[in-house]
Specification:
Strand content: 15-25%
Shape: globular
Radius of gyration: 17 Å
CATH architecture: 3-Layer(aba) Sandwich
Number of strands: 8
CATH topology: Rossmann fold
Structural class: alpha/beta
Helix content: 25-40%
CATH superfamily: HUPs
Largest sheet: 6 strands, parallel
């Protein structure tokens, strides 16, 4: 998988690409559902499968006092995303300048001019552009205007106490009383040492009245990557 820290690092001759966008913290099954579709569509179109993500998490820029604790650092996220079959990952530095771009400015600059996109694969809850004003319908309109296909992926599963998970979802912040979104899914992230009993919880949906925070107190970070 090719890895770029900035749009300027993306080769000028890249493309066509099939693109998705999200924070992908934890790379849980909701994320994997979107990424699997992304890779499949890219292969069908003889295009490169590229994910766009951000570091730091946008919440750490806009609401640092309320930002959720991250499941994975950038290195672990990169390794987990590489395992999904992606051809490229663009990890954009998130700051107020990037946040100031309108939805159309962002898509035109990054998707169209930077990545030569031919199709976009996204979840129904996607948000992008200044003030998170862009959504799925915005992307569809931009696809018609700028010449790329937009494919919406159905939500994957559902939490007992909340909405279905989709590709852009993130773990609830500590103290929320909600079971981690990723608990509907995959093995615990490699960046955590997880006791066997907790690992079982990670892979099994909790009862409807379950209330435990992420990360559980018995988990320990393996590395800060």
């Amino acid at each position: 998988m090719y890895y770029w820290n900035d749009l300027a690092e993306v080769p000028a001759g890249i493309g066509p690409t099939v693109v998705t966008i999200g924070n992908f913290d934890g790379v849980h099954l909701g994320h994997q559902h979107v990424l699997d579709r992304l890779v499949k569509v890219a292969r069908e179109k003889d295009a490169a499968a590229v994910a766009i993500s951000f570091d730091p998490h946008p919440a750490q820029v806009h609401r640092p006092e309320a930002a959720p604790e991250q499941i994975m650092g950038p290195l672990d996220r990169r390794e987990a995303l590489a395992a999904t079959g992606l051809d490229g990952l663009l990890m954009m530095h998130y700051d107020l300048q990037l946040a100031s771009l309108t939805a159309e400015e962002f898509v035109r600059r990054v998707f169209v001019e930077g990545l030569r996109v031919c199709a976009v694969v996204i979840g129904h809850d996607v948000r992008f552009g200044r003030g998170n004003a862009g959504d799925l319908e915005t992307m569809r309109g931009l696809g018609e205007k700028l010449g790329f296909e937009v494919l919406a992926v159905e939500d994957f599963g559902a939490l007992p106490d909340g909405p279905a998970e989709s590709g852009g979802g993130a773990a609830p912040r500590p103290g929320s009383g909600r079971h981690c979104a990723a608990a509907t899914c995959a093995p615990p992230p490699a960046c955590w040492d997880v006791p066997t009993a907790c690992a079982a919880k990670w892979c099994t949906a909790p009862p409807a009245d379950a209330s435990w925070d992420f990360p559980p107190p018995t988990w320990r970070r393996r590395r800060a990557g």
